[in-house]
Amino acid sequence: MNLMQLRAFHAVATQSSFTLAARTLGLTQPTLSQSVKALEERYGVLLFERSSRKVQPTEMGRRLFQLTTRLFDTEQEAATLLEGSAQLAQGLLQLGADSPYYVMPLIAEFDRRHPQVEIRLSIGNAGAVLEDLSEARLDVALLSNPPVDPRFHIVPLYRDPVRLMLPAGDALAALDAVPAAALAGRRLVMRETGSMTRRTVERGLAEAEVAPTAVFEVTGREAVQEAVGHGLGIGFISEGEIRPDPRIAIRPLGDRGWQTDEYVLCHRDRRRFPAIRAFIELAVAAAADVQVIG
Question: What does R_g of the chain's alpha carbons equal in angstroms?
């Protein structure tokens, strides 16, 4: 079996892109593409569904990726042992998060301590980030309320209250705190399915037996803020994500403690890697200076 062909396949599966994979391996794209094609032809299999937008592994590709992840993780661990890279003199750390606001301070501190380690960050809703972590496209993730999963090492970090976002001229903005019952019959601006803030709000509304008139669904927290700023409804935001906007009033929920809990997580069998371990330890230390989940 040709190890270089496996390495080319693994890079494409990790990056979901032939261009990025070639850059990672220091190859030209035609050379890398030929390596993957040769592997497919040798064994008579199709490893990727290719389109103009994204490269997706086939079922066979996903099964092979699970094996190559273990293979190259073991290779990396051996290199760590033999080359002494436990001092983090080099390497790559791929991070994912459902919000930039919690992870950026951690990245800044990690970069200050370990400037030789290259960091890549992807932001998406919690469902998408969790899928990337599951498929080993990410090393570490910061997420709100992740599901319990024995594959992951999960560490609690912050507890973040959910606040209301109201148009500044809304009558409810005159209140110091807004009771959940006041949301009955109002139009709510909600994030896309998969957002943990949305799940928290939907659960809280159900418990309070509150039914909105309508839900205006948008993608991303920036879109929620813009919709509320233009008077299209009432939105929700975690306290740590609040940024000043003169069009918007932020108010707590007066009678209920809706909140999201932030966690850092990685694959259990990968937490021994130096960069992953260092980032998680830094996150835990930072959480000690904030409100930690009890």
Answer: 22
pLDDT at 292 over 50: no
For residue 150, count CB atoms less than 10 angstroms from its CB and return exposed for 0-12, middle for 13-18, buried for 19 or more.
exposed
Reply yes or no on whether the pLDDT at 28 is more than 50: yes
- 284 within a domain of the structure (yes/no): no
Distance (Å, whole) CA 24 – CA 12: 10
- Contact yes or no for 116/90 (Cβ under 8 A): yes
Query: Is 285 among the domain residues?
Result: no
Q: Give me the number of domains the chain comprises.
A: 2
In a domain, residue 271? The reply is no
Helix axes 3-15, 59-83, angle to 10 degrees: 110
Q: Which two tokens stand for residue 206?
A: 């159900």
Q: pLDDT per residue over 88-143, tens digit each?
A: 667 789 999 988 888 999 999 999 999 988 999 999 888 889 989 988 889 999 99
Domain termination residue (choose one: 45, 71, 97):
71
- Closest among 23, 26, 139 to 72, alpha carbons compared: 139
Domain end among 49, 71, 93: 71
Residue 247 sits at φ, ψ, to 5 deg, of -80, -10
Q: What is the pLDDT of residues 250-290, one digit of tens each?
A: 999 887 778 888 899 999 888 888 889 999 999 988 877 65
> Six-digit token pair at 238?
């975690």
Beta bridge pairs of residue 144: 262
128 CB-side CA count, 13 A = 13
Q: Which tokens sit at 120?
A: 């890549």
In a domain, 1, yes or no: yes
Helix (H, G, I), strand (E, B) or coil at 75: helix
Q: Domain of 224: which CATH number?
A: 3.40.190.10
Q: Which domain holds residue 208?
A: 162-260
